[in-house]
């Protein structure tokens, strides 16, 4: 089974973040630097020398996670108090802001971190996006705020920190000022795309937030986890349609399931992949439509992340007691949804193949 | 059966044009004036003394109709050559322009009017709107360009000229510069509304064009005819929810089926209208959603046009051989669609009640 989606080419994290990468190079120092309290930094990401904990703009990862969880819990909770209504053009530029003093306030609980402010961008618009993507408010809240966020240990060269929710459904990524600003500007076009191009393979954006602490702004975006563990991928390719320097690095190849690139694909699968004619046509059409949108946004640095789940291999792995994939149950074919989840959230679990074949 | 929709309060023409009226007062001279060649003008509308023909910005109505028909035929024809694609944000500000010399050109036929230029605003966006409203390109072309446009003789106080297509489905209205500009700015919000609020009772905009002739710009908008003859209305009310000066004029009352106003409604129907609970709730919700959108557009001069088709009265009229409604067949209940039309165009014929009960 082939799984397709766009990917952040600067990272091996399987999420589609291409559309917010355009501005990154402008703000991102290419080389690492050292400061008094940091061991090594890439962009805004560093490591605290005393504890070894990751930092972002000198805020520790644990404080950032805490602020994100408190902030999202508050903003989603307060949004659920407000009546449902249609999204208006004005909603795309709204920014809601709430102060979280460590001693607590009428509106916010006490916490063990420094005071911070939490900003929610376009709350009504993102509520609509989440609804369109089948994410129920309760599940969003539960996945992100009631279970620990797990920091990814191989965050790539972008200088961002990545977190994944415990249930492996959501990715949180720090983004730079320009990227967040750019994403905000794209929201009307994004709205139009998800209404017209139901099969779109572009990243699903669920929220854009900002944690203000110690005079620094840390902006984060919440997205779908494109390749969750529930369907183990036996091969992964990050494809750009270019052959220039498009081979996975030696370091990447050392991983259990590396993300290969275009030149590897040509070498490993010289015949390409065999898709049924209908799926092939639907996929090509979707990629065309997505590329037209990216082009209209003047985005050119994007790629298609393709995961291959080999049914025979999965079957063999299962017979061997799932040895190859740790202690996880390996699924194949239609994914069995978690019984706790309602039907409405199907899209979360839908494989990309269902997305390819789905409604126009 | 009740039919509801917003209406142009400055006119008795049953079309929902409220959202493009906001700017009108600024440009519209309130009093009539006389010029050398014109008998009487209201705004840009006048009458030629020699022929008695209506003029708009000194262009005769027949020349205007000819230019509109040639222009729309060309723009819809050339659009059908282009591949279907998604609407992008950029599409809302596109203006296509084509010159029609009277002797004809490679692209345009010869004609009997003066040279003119025809501009189409946001062609891709309006193609999408027409598709959303179930208007097939062929039918749009046929209704507007292959049959005569009929000028309405009671165009109201707005200074606009109104045409209706021979099949009574489309209304064409001249709009002023500011109104056209305003409508263009609303297009992204309009796109969002028809995607979210499927039951919207706001006017259906099918096209925005401009005829440039003799140094003048004549902008026109093509809309749905809210109360087509096919369902004869026995009572009509233009409701604003205000009681200030909201009684139909004596002149209006002289008409066969006058459009009454709020004070008349209160007097004639002190108990209001009885709607089934589901319809009542759906209608209230839709009006709320429409009003929220109008408010977001900063439009406050709008009204609800309500038509009442009395089944008993229609039945009696039919028994009397349709005497009360001329030689037209009077229909009731679900409207029987013209056999020539495909199912896709259903929405054209849908009564507002179906619209009220329709999908979210």
From TrEMBL, chains A, B:
<dbReference type="GO" id="GO:0005524">
    <property type="term" value="F:ATP binding"/>
</dbReference>
<feature type="region of interest" description="Disordered">
    <location>
        <begin position="317"/>
        <end position="344"/>
    </location>
</feature>
<dbReference type="Pfam" id="PF01504">
    <property type="entry name" value="PIP5K"/>
</dbReference>
<dbReference type="InterPro" id="IPR027483">
    <property type="entry name" value="PInositol-4-P-4/5-kinase_C_sf"/>
</dbReference>
<keyword id="KW-0963">Cytoplasm</keyword>
<dbReference type="InterPro" id="IPR027484">
    <property type="entry name" value="PInositol-4-P-5-kinase_N"/>
</dbReference>
<keyword id="KW-0418">Kinase</keyword>
<dbReference type="GO" id="GO:0016308">
    <property type="term" value="F:1-phosphatidylinositol-4-phosphate 5-kinase activity"/>
</dbReference>
<dbReference type="InterPro" id="IPR023610">
    <property type="entry name" value="PInositol-4/5-P-5/4-kinase"/>
</dbReference>
<dbReference type="GO" id="GO:0005737">
    <property type="term" value="C:cytoplasm"/>
</dbReference>
<dbReference type="GO" id="GO:0005886">
    <property type="term" value="C:plasma membrane"/>
</dbReference>
<feature type="compositionally biased region" description="Polar residues">
    <location>
        <begin position="1"/>
        <end position="20"/>
    </location>
</feature>
<feature type="domain" description="PIPK">
    <location>
        <begin position="60"/>
        <end position="360"/>
    </location>
</feature>
<protein>
    <submittedName>
        <fullName>Phosphatidylinositol-4-phosphate 5-kinase, type I, alpha, b</fullName>
    </submittedName>
</protein>
<dbReference type="GO" id="GO:0046854">
    <property type="term" value="P:phosphatidylinositol phosphate biosynthetic process"/>
</dbReference>
<dbReference type="InterPro" id="IPR002498">
    <property type="entry name" value="PInositol-4-P-4/5-kinase_core"/>
</dbReference>
<keyword id="KW-0547">Nucleotide-binding</keyword>
<feature type="compositionally biased region" description="Polar residues">
    <location>
        <begin position="30"/>
        <end position="39"/>
    </location>
</feature>
<keyword id="KW-0067">ATP-binding</keyword>
<keyword id="KW-0808">Transferase</keyword>
<feature type="region of interest" description="Disordered">
    <location>
        <begin position="1"/>
        <end position="47"/>
    </location>
</feature>
């Amino acid at each position: 089974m082939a799984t397709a989606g766009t990917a952040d080419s600067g990272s091996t994290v399987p999420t589609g973040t291409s559309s917010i990468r355009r501005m990154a190079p402008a703000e991102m120092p290419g080389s690492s630097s050292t400061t008094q309290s940091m061991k090594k930094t890439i962009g805004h990401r560093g490591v605290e020398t005393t504890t070894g904990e990751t930092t972002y703009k000198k805020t520790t990862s644990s404080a950032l996670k805490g602020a994100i969880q408190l902030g999202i819990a508050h903003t989603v909770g307060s949004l659920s108090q407000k009546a449902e209504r249609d999204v208006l053009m004005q909603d795309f530029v709204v920014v809601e802001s709430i102060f979280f003093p460590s001693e607590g306030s009428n509106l916010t609980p006490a916490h063990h971190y420094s005071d911070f402010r939490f900003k929610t961008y376009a709350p009504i618009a993102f509520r609509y996006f989440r609804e369109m993507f089948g994410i129920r408010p309760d599940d969003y809240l539960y996945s992100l705020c009631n279970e620990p966020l797990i920091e990814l240990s191989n965050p790539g060269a972008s200088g961002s920190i990545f977190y994944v929710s415990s249930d492996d459904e959501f990715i949180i990524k720090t983004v730079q000022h320009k990227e967040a600003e750019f994403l905000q500007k794209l929201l009307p076009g994004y709205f139009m795309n998800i209404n017209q191009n139901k099969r779109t393979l572009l990243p699903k954006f669920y929220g854009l937030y900002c944690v203000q602490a110690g005079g620094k702004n840390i902006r984060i975006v919440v997205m779908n986890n494109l390749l969750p563990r529930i369907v183990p991928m036996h091969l992964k390719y990050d494809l750009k349609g270019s052959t220039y320097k498009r081979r996975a690095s030696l370091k990447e190849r050392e991983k259990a399931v590396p993300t290969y690139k275009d030149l590897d694909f040509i070498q490993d699968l010289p015949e390409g992949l065999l898709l049924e004619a209908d799926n092939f046509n639907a996929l090509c059409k979707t990629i065309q439509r997505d590329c037209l949108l990216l082009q209209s946004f003047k985005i050119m640095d994007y790629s298609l992340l393709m995961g291959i789940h080999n049914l025979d291999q999965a079957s063999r792995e299962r017979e061997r007691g799932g040895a190859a994939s740790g202690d996880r149950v390996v699924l194949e074919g239609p994914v069995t949804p978690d019984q706790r989840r309602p039907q409405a959230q199907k899209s979360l679990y839908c494989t990309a193949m269902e997305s390819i074949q789905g409604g126009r």
